[in-house]
Amino acid sequence: MQALSSRLQTRWVADDVTVLLCPSVRPSRALQRLCDNQQQHALSMLLQRTVHRIPDDILKSNIADITTIRNLEADAVDKLKKRITENLNLLQKIHRNLEVCEENLQFWSGHQLKKFISPNR
Fold first, then answer.
1. Full-prediction pTM beyond 0.70?
2. Domain residue spans of the chain
3. Which of 21, 30, 27 is nearest to 12 (CA)?
């Protein structure tokens, strides 16, 4: 049943049949999608009309404000990336030091070396 349903849906996609017209979708869900799409379209049209009503000088000043904010954010991101790189390099150095310390501990904790070193040392 699922295979038939998936084949039917792929055929509808190939034939450009919208999901709203597919009978496999419940009518309530299809109606909800249709209402959501209509609301999104109405909202986008309202936004376009509002943008066209704003004077150009206000729009340009807002764009300038946005560019300064973007530049400040880009600088902050660059500083963060630099600090992350520095911290990563520091962590790598610490990791190498810890590996060397671990090797030294394993070397000196070996039972064979204890034979040659006096316990008073």
1. no
2. 1-53, 55-121
3. 21
